[in-house]
């Protein structure tokens, strides 16, 4: 099976050039000007960009919070369809073990959720929610199976560990050149503020951000980076959302520390006034960290422009507004946290970032694909269009316009946080390892996703 894509502008983090691309079976085999069109299929992509398939490094495709609580509206089948339809060809999902269970058990569970069901390629960040000698011994076993990234929590009582446990885990992760990401919020302070608000009868969604203020994130990030500096481990900050946190990161980098920063579309495009919406609509926007002020949004955009943020992923974790979010109708702390997002990230960031001139095409490719592939040990199999790479490709039509709506989305959830948002640019065709997976937002070939065996991380920041 061979395909030649002609006439597109191929974009990488280093630049852009009009090149033809030949695909044979699953790989890119040739790039050049005026390639011979001896192929099974020739695609004219004149006027379009050709991007490496986008990678979402932060999804919760299928999360079950246990008996009596909510399971996500999407599962791997529906979430990955929504991903690949709009150009995301790989996801790194958060695999979370139950307390008392091994990481190996968790890996088995997540393989059963994704294998044969995912329409995009996939791997997992393995969550470490407690610490002991058995778990320490499992870190190299995970790396040997291609799981080289890990997730820990400083908030949520059922998930968080102590600073000493984080230190100990970091020491083991460093030995395998692994990448750690931590949910940074001071869990004790969040608990205290929530108790205070509820005791005063303040139960509406608008109190959610007030119980998780900016400094609660910045303090946790500072503590995290302090521990990482002691260990000498380059680390990832997931979903950074505040200007105070950026100041902490700048200080750490100024003293020579390697820090990777992820933010998410919701912190760039939505602000905390949504929590004031009537009729409990604010619950749609409950996520942690919460949406922030317009000043934080502006600071994040400035950091993006300056190259201080490495990656944009989604924290896709969706619950239906009706039924599920309403669990917390009388108590905002019971509203299941998270929002849909895996489908809309490319169009949102292209529209708000590239089409406005805030970020370049090269930055866009880095933030949504190449930087993620490098950071999480998938490069150059993923994240770049070059000879030998997987033919994960997005033919992007910059002229195509659309409107985001719950009525037309593929995400299996009853709302979108971006209802009515006008988009500029869209994926005209999406290829997953040489097979066309989607055309104009419609999935052609689903459930072709494979597990991606990942290596130790490339710790070299650009
Ligand atoms: Zn998350």
Automatic annotation (TrEMBL):
Classification via NCBIfam families: D-hydantoinase (TIGR02033)
Secretion signal, residue range per the UniProt entry: none
Family indicated by similarity: Belongs to the metallo-dependent hydrolases superfamily. Hydantoinase/dihydropyrimidinase family.
Protein name in the entry: Dihydropyrimidinase
Cofactors demanded by this protein: Zn(2+)
Domain Amidohydrolase-related intervals: 49-435
A Pfam family of this chain: Amidohydro_1
Organism superkingdom: Bacteria
Keywords: Hydrolase, Metal-binding
Keyword Hydrolase set for record: yes
Bilayer-spanning residue ranges: none
Any one GO MF annotation of this record: dihydropyrimidinase activity
EC code(s) of this entry: 3.5.2.2
Organism encoding this protein: Loigolactobacillus jiayinensis
């Amino acid at each position: 099976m061979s395909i030649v894509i002609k006439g597109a502008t191929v974009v990488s983090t280093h630049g852009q050039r009009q090149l033809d691309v030949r695909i044979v079976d699953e790989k890119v085999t040739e790039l050049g000007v005026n390639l011979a069109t001896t192929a099974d299929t020739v695609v004219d992509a004149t006027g379009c960009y050709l991007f490496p398939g986008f990678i979402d490094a932060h999804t919760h495709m299928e999360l079950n919070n246990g008996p009596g609580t909510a399971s996500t509206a999407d599962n791997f089948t529906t979430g990955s369809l929504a991903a690949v339809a709009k150009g995301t060809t790989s996801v790194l999902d958060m695999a979370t073990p139950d307390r008392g269970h091994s990481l190996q058990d968790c890996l088995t569970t997540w393989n059963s959720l994704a294998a044969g069901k995912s329409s995009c390629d996939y791997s997992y960040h393995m969550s470490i929610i407690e610490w002991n000698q058995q778990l320490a011994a499992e870190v190299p076993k995970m790396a040997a199976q291609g799981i080289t990234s890990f997730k820990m929590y400083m908030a949520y009582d059922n998930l968080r560990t102590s600073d000493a446990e984080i230190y100990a885990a970091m020491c083991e992760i460093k030995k395998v050149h692994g990448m750690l990401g931590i949910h940074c919020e001071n869990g004790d302070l969040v608990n205290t503020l929530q108790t205070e608000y509820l005791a005063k009868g303040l139960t509406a969604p608008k109190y959610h951000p007030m119980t998780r203020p900016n400094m609660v994130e910045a303090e946790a990030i500072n503590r995290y980076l302090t521990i990482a500096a002691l260990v000498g481990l380059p680390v990832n900050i997931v979903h950074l959302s505040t200007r105070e946190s950026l100041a902490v990161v700048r200080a750490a980098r100024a003293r020579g520390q390697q820090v990777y920063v992820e933010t998410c579309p919701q912190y760039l495009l939505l602000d905390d006034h949504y929590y004031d919406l009537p009729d409990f609509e604010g619950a749609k926007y409950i996520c942690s960290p919460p949406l922030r002020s317009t000043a934080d949004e502006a600071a994040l955009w400035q950091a993006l422009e300056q190259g201080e943020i490495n990656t944009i992923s989604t924290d896709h974790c969706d619950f239906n507004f009706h039924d599920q979010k309403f669990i917390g109708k009388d108590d905002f702390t019971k509203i299941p946290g998270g929002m849909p997002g895996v489908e809309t990230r490319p169009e949102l960031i292209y529209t708000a970032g590239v089409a406005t001139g805030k970020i370049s095409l090269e930055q866009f490719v880095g933030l949504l694909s190449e930087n993620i592939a490098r950071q999480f040990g998938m490069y150059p199999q993923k994240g770049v269009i070059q000879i030998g790479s997987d033919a994960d490709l997005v033919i992007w039509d910059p002229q195509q316009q659309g409107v985001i709506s719950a009525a037309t989305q593929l995400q299996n959830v009853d709302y979108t946080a971006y209802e009515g948002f006008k988009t500029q640019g869209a994926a005209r065709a999406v290829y997953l390892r040489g097979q066309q997976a989607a055309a104009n937002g419609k999935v052609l070939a689903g459930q072709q996703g494979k597990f991606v065996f990942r290596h130790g991380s490339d710790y070299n920041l650009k």
